[in-house]
Design goal:
alpha/beta; about 25% helix; about 20% strand
Length: about 170
């Protein structure tokens, strides 16, 4: 079985948000068009507490129960089968979907019979990369859908380095 994984397509990561990814909203129509092609759709969200060490590195963003933490209004949330909250503790960054305290994501996916993950979302060199690398480590055939991701590229070349690292780990880009 194949699952679509949507990483952090939230208001704070889109234009006008607290930590916007350039053109982050451009992934929304692509993702919406893909949803019905998969057996299962998972969406992750940063769901930070008001105080966390994560904000020592980043501006405050995606604080749980705020408008910034909500999914982009254009995202077809009715097509999502499972929402996973990450970065929920005071001392975790929550980059990878597999780092959630909520559940054993690998075990959950395997119980559902999912063996292939197709990853989309924000941001390429952070949460997309961490989730894709962890997917491979957990034994999933992993694909990243190139036109359904966007990155920040704080330091020029960060996105390219992230893509190279993912490809080196055996992740396929389609």
């Amino acid at each position: 079985m194949k699952a679509l994984m949507i990483i952090d397509v939230q208001n704070d990561f889109c234009p006008g948000g607290a930590l916007p990814v350039p053109d982050g909203d451009k992934v929304v129509p692509v993702i919406n068009n893909l949803m019905d092609k998969f057996d299962y759709v998972i969406a992750t969200r940063d769901w930070h507490p008001e105080k966390t060490v994560h904000f020592d590195k980043w501006p405050e963003h995606c604080i749980r129960m705020t408008q910034g933490a909500e999914f982009h209004p254009g995202l077809n949330t009715a097509g999502i089968n499972k929402i996973i909250s990450k970065g929920t503790g005071n001392k975790d960054d929550g980059y990878s979907a597999f780092e959630t305290e909520e559940l054993d994501l690998s075990g959950f996916l395997k119980e559902k019979g999912i063996n292939e993950l197709y990853i989309t979302g924000l941001a390429t060199e952070y949460c997309v990369k961490a989730s894709a690398l962890d997917a491979v480590k957990n034994g999933f055939k992993t694909y990243v859908i190139s036109d359904a991701i966007r990155g920040i590229d704080i330091n020029e070349g960060d996105i390219a380095k992230a893509v190279d690292k993912m490809k080196s780990a055996g992740i396929n880009f389609i």
